[in-house]
Each structure stands twice: as structure tokens, then as C-alpha cells.
């Protein structure tokens, strides 16, 4: 299944859905093949019932503003680009107010699949 994106934007955005203990949330994630682990905004995770104090562990992540400590949270389900991962450990991070998305879709979600980005036609496929 192919999904559309705007190749004129500086970033590739994808719609996603995350399932939590108390509900589901819609996300707009930035596709980031340079991120080893997916990142989701902490406020979004809090709204669907995740508690950062119950994190699997903590990690140190490199961001545009420097090194930060952030919880690794196991999400029940993350769905994007026609694929889903269950029990996925993601980084919960408070993104800056100027962030244009709710987080990053990283390599942990993409591994084992074929990612095709067609910038000529503005299409993305993950199979």
C-alpha cells in the first residue's frame, strides 16, 4: 500500500496511531532513518495513559538542543504506513513547542521491511 507525502516539505511526515492503557492517540510523525529508536511526545503518551515513572529504563538521547535523559516506554501498539508494531520500546520526550510533529518514526519500526520513498511522485511505501 502506498501513502502520499509532500516532497516539497523539508521533512517527510506520516500519520500514525499509538495505543495506550486508556485509549489511542493520533500522531503526526517525522520519518527519520537516522533515528535508531522512535520518539513520541510525552504529553501525547500521558493522554493515553502512559506513566513515565513506570518506564522500562532511561536513555540519553542526542537532540538538536544537546543531550537529554528520557524514559524508554513500551507502547502497546504503534501503527503507521500500513504496518504495526506491538510492545515497542520508544523514547518519550518533551518536544519543543516549535516542533512540527509529535515525534519521530525511527529504524526500530522500519527494520525488516522495505522502505521506498518516491520523491518524484510523493509516495511512500513500507512492505
- The name of the CATH superfamily reads Acid Proteases
**N-end to C-end Cα span:** 8 Å
Order of helices and strands: EEEEHEEEEHEE
Number of helices: 2
Give the overall shape, derived from the CA principal axes: globular
CATH architecture: Beta Barrel
Number of domains: 1
Portion in beta strands:
over 45%
- What is the CATH fold-level name? Cathepsin D, subunit A, domain 1
Find the count of extended strands (DSSP E, 2+ residues).
Answer: 10
CATH top-level class: Mainly Beta
Question: What key attributes describe this structure?
Answer:
single chain; 127 residues; mainly beta; Cathepsin D, subunit A, domain 1; six-stranded mixed barrel; three-stranded antiparallel sheet; 53% strand; globular
What does this structure look like?
This protein is mostly beta strands and 127 residues long. The protein has a single domain (2-126), classed as Acid Proteases (Cathepsin D, subunit A, domain 1, Beta Barrel), CATH 2.40.70. It is built from two helices and ten strands; from the N terminus they run E-E-E-E-H-E-E-E-E-H-E-E. The strands form two sheets. The protein has a six-stranded mixed beta barrel with strand order 2-3-8-4-7-6. Strands 1-10-9 form a three-stranded antiparallel β-sheet, with no helix packed on it. The longest helix has 6 residues, at 42-47. It is globular. The termini are close together.
